[in-house]
């Protein structure tokens, strides 16, 4: 049985300017000890304008925290005003990039095809995509959460070879649980995360499926993280609001103590 290192990633969304980002990462670095990183990977997904500052801090102080972006252009370079390319993110030594967050799907019209192109752009530049999938409330009420989420997964992974897909991180984020305080039950999270892993086994191989980390995201806090992490197919969390509070984020990283 493969052991998967849990990934606790804070998605700052459109919060923390570059000065606040420095203060926040410094706070995290003071609070987190070497032993916190022994069996957990810690990452922050920062706004583009923060990334250079975060990089300088992480490099200068040799911090173990990883960082990445919240979006990536599907294009390599050229006349795409306002876009940020994968090579620009790679130059800033980002490890991760979120793809297809529900807020991008909802407010920026990102389809599964666009997510697929962005996953490809991430791999082209040596970045690890955190592919976000998950259903809205209507779909959940109709009981179609698994089919809906797996269709998003299939769409985003189209033509992605196993050598790439084996490093992907999938974040299952039910839209109705994001920023609402309405956390999915651990059983809800396990149902869909388990289905995602089985689909990865069908699309690729059991070995690959066993290696891929699947996060849960949606109103994760220090008080509910342990029960969610206890589920066999949940390998980490993608944390929004609670990641903006450094003390709370550290408690989430230390989920085994909660
Ligand atoms: O969208 C999320 C992380 O990407 C979850 O946000 P909240 O933790 O604020 O619900």
Structural description of this entry:
This protein is an alpha/beta fold and 258 residues long. The protein has a single domain, classed as Aldolase class I (TIM Barrel). The chain has helices at 18-31, 51-60, 86-91, 102-107, 112-124, 137-141, 145-156, 162-165, 186-203, 206-211, 225-229, 246-253, and strands spanning 7-11, 41-45, 66-69, 96-99, 128-133, 169-172, 213-217, 236-239. Strands 1-2-3-4-5-6-7-8 form an 8-stranded parallel barrel, surrounded by 5 helices. The mean pLDDT is 97. 1,3-dihydroxyacetonephosphate binds at residues 11, 101, 173, 178-179, 217-220, 238-242.
CATH topology name: TIM Barrel
Write the element-wise H/E pattern from the N-terminal end onward.
EHEHEHEHHEHHHEHHEHEH
Which structural class fits the helix and strand makeup? Answer: alpha/beta
Low-confidence blocks of residues: none
Short description:
The chain is of the alpha/beta class. The chain has 12 helices and 8 strands. The chain has helices spanning 18-31, 51-60, 86-91, 102-107, 112-124, 137-141, 145-156, 162-165, 186-203, 206-211, 225-229, 246-253; strands at residues 7-11, 41-45, 66-69, 96-99, 128-133, 169-172, 213-217, 236-239.
